UniProtKB/TrEMBL annotation:
One of its GO terms (biological process) is secondary metabolite biosynthetic process. This is AMP-dependent synthetase/ligase domain-containing protein. GO terms for cellular component: cytoplasm. Signal peptide: none annotated. Pfam families: AMP-binding (PF00501). Residues 2-352 form the AMP-dependent synthetase/ligase domain. It comes from the Bacteria. One of its GO terms (molecular function) is phosphopantetheine binding. InterPro entries: AA_adenyl_dom, AMP-dep_synth/lig_dom.
Length: 380
């Protein structure tokens, strides 16, 4: 999907951050070259790369290059606590850590004990640097297997130790295609990405606009401050943005014009007053719900009337997704009867990395789906 956009819109701006821009053609070339470099340094489908980069155009290049190479990426946000990052690096055991000189990755020490690449100090190889056959075949970028792991995202750890959720290419492609269709972004649209890559919803912000031929505007860490974010929205003429209710709440305290912005809001329960305020100030508001274990969002509801803002619904399942409210015996409950929400379908992740016990407890056989499929027990 991205390659098609790169050919179709080669000279159009694909990504922008802090004044730095790359066209679709440039982004395609940069990511192809870095993808070969990752493969040359031992990364591969079963050998992930940890990405410890701050928010910049280089971050987008790294994430997309890993995806092109079929290498699972593990986000390690330099802004997160050292203890969390150290746990992620121990558990994920990456083949490589991508970083830049002068920007420490808390939890990774000085990187001398880890295989790493400092992207600002490397000459990324071109075709002339690729070895001759048979080694050249190993460095040829191929479409990834849909069932291979695309990324591992670690949960917050609010209920215990953070767990790495292994999300496949089939999982993430289903989500991206569903929201690309829902948002129907056009070439003139500008999607503002504000979420840390350590939170799974960032993948939607980074990839949907690029698959749609729109412009991705990446806010820096400093620009995520509400006042600066409000000015960025207006200066860049943003037309789509996703954020948690907490961020939308503080942003609405600023005199920001959202009349041309399509809003995605999720990650927390949406308060009634905020739903009402967003609906009155934004072009469109969609409330989304889903755990990391079912690939970002599993349901969505566009708030089209005042009734929706009084008790914001989480909506209906996205494409190729099933939801069930079940009792303790896994039987569907009647309308109005309390039960537990289970989610099945194309978004159900492979499971928790190195955690067979919790995987078996939460990822269970789906008696309502095709044979061999699983559903996720949300606890909600």
């Amino acid at each position: 999907m991205f390659a098609w956009q790169a050919r179709r819109r080669s000279d159009a701006i694909a990504v922008e951050c802090a004044g730095e821009q790359l066209t679709y053609g440039q982004l395609d070339e940069e990511t192809d070259r870095l993808a070969r470099l990752l493969l040359a340094h031992g990364a591969g489908p079963e050998h992930p790369v940890a990405i410890g980069l701050r928010r910049s155009v280089r971050l987008v290049v790294a994430l997309l290059a890993a995806t092109k190479a079929g290498v699972p990426y593990v986000p390690v946000d330099p802004g997160h606590p050292a203890e969390r990052n150290a746990l992620i690096l121990r558990d994920a055991a990456p083949a490589l850590v991508l970083a830049v000189s002068g920007t420490p990755v808390p939890g990774a020490g000085d990187l001398r004990g880890l295989p790493h690449l400092l992207l600002d100090e490397l000459r990324v190889p071109g075709p002339a640097d690729v070895p001759s056959a048979p080694d050249a075949d190993l460095l040829r970028v191929r479409p990834p297997n849909p069932q291979d792991i695309a990324y591992t995202l670690y949960t917050s750890g609010s209920t215990g130790t953070p767990k790495g959720v292994a999300v496949t290419y089939a999982n993430i492609l289903n989500l991206l295609r569903s929201f690309a269709k829902r948002l129907a972004l056009r070439p003139e649209d500008r999607f503002l990405a504000v979420t840390t890559v350590g939170f799974d919803i960032a993948a939607l912000e980074l990839f949907v606009p690029l698959l749609s031929g729109s412009r991705l505007v990446l806010a820096t860490e400093a620009e995520r401050e509400p006042g600066r974010l409000a000015r960025l929205i207006e200066r860049q003429r943003i037309t789509a943005m996703q954020a948690t209710p907490s961020l939308w709440q503080v942003l609405l305290e600023e005199p920001v014009d959202l009349s041309g912005v399509r809003v995605l809001v999720g990650g927390e329960a949406l308060p009634t007053r905020l739903a009402r305020d967003l609906r009155h100030r934004a072009r469109e508001v969609t409330n989304v719900y889903g755990p990391t274990e079912t690939t970002i969002w599993s349901t969505a509801a566009t708030l089209e009337c005042e009734e929706h803002t009084e008790r914001p619904p989480i909506g209906v399942p996205i494409d190729r997704t099933r939801t069930y409210v079940l009792d303790r015996e896994l039987r569907p409950v009647e309308d109005g009867v309390e039960g537990e929400l289970y989610i099945g379908g194309a978004g159900v992740a492979r499971g928790y990395v190195n955690r067979p016990g919790p995987t078996a407890q939460r990822f269970v056989a789906d008696p309502f789906g095709p044979p061999g499929t699983r559903m996720y027990r949300t606890g909600d």
